[in-house]
Amino acid sequence: MEARPAIEGGCACGAVRYRALDAGFLPYACHCQGCQRRQGSAFALNQQVLAADFSCTGATTQGRVTSVSGAQVTHTACAACLTRVYTANDRRPDLVTIRTGTRDDSPQMSPAFHIWTSSMQPWIDLPGHVPAFTGQPDEAEWLHLVRPAGEVEGLAAEPR
Ligand SMILES: [Zn+2]
Ligand SMILES: [Zn+2]
Q: Is position 160 within any domain?
């Protein structure tokens, strides 16, 4: 089996660093109002990795919010500089969602699809070839979009 490349990243001050293996999940943009507010920006850029492949060092602080889909989401930030580095979603316990902008190679990342464009900021002009959804795709469709290579062994496809 081909070795999966590593994903490395961390916070702005360098106190928090993480490492994961790229499990084939693509970065995507969420334009929901919750992400806009939590990011303090126009949208969130997210990417999933397997929780089993993810490790993080450095002092962190956590915050818990209810997502637009109703899931409980725990955000983890650097305790020193408050860069939000990753989230965990109680409906997808096998996955960790990293903030793509915290990857060391983030300038090379572009979203494979866009969700919640119903609340997208009006100045954004999406490229026509990238799939976009006005809301949240259902879980099976989301899994297909986010990981076109197919199912991950041991990962539940059904929402919990
Ligand atoms: Zn920091
Ligand atoms: Zn969102």
A: no
pLDDT band of residue 67 (cuts 50, 70, 90) is confident
Count of structural domains, the chain: 1
Residue 2 CA to ligand 2 center (angstroms) comes to: 33
Contact 56, 18 (CB under 8 A): yes
155 domain-assigned: no
Ligand nearest to the CA of 10: 1
Asked whether the predicted pLDDT for residue 158 surpasses 60, the reply is no
Q: How far is the CA of 35 from the centre of ligand 2 (A)?
A: 4
Q: How confident is the model at residue 150 (pLDDT cuts 50, 70, 90)?
A: confident
Vertex 151 angle, CA 91 and 3, to 5°: 110
Question: Distance between CA atoms of 154 and 53, rounded to whole angstroms?
Answer: 13
Closest ligand to C-alpha of residue 9 is 1
pTM (2 decimals)?
A: 0.89
Surrounding residues of ion ligand 1, Cβ less than 5 A: 11, 13, 15, 78, 80-81
Q: 78 lies in which domain range?
A: 6-146
